[in-house]
Structure prediction request, 121 residues.
Amino acid sequence: MKVATVGSWTVGLGRVATGVGFLAAADRAAKRWVGDSSPTSVYLVRAVAARDLAIGAGLVWALARRRDPLSWLAASVVSDLGDSIGSVVLPPEHRRISVVAAGGFGALGAATAAAVARSRA
Prediction:
């Protein structure tokens, strides 16, 4: 199996898992990620969960139907970039968690998108 394919499945299933996990434990995720479990923070986590679930499901759908995953991978990378940029307002201990998580997912998505683009050449 190609690196691009494995990476794409990993990004897609990882986003689905993140979305489901954040929805299932939004209070706990908000406390760890944002620093509190206020209704506003829980709402933020649920919004991110829905976004991750949608991007992951779209990517998995495209892969299962042998469609081009690049637009879904681009959405994944852009959302992680937004998370990283948005995290600058968090307290340092929560900023670090957010930047590491979003940066890691973003790097995986970007590397996978590059592999998909390279496989076309």
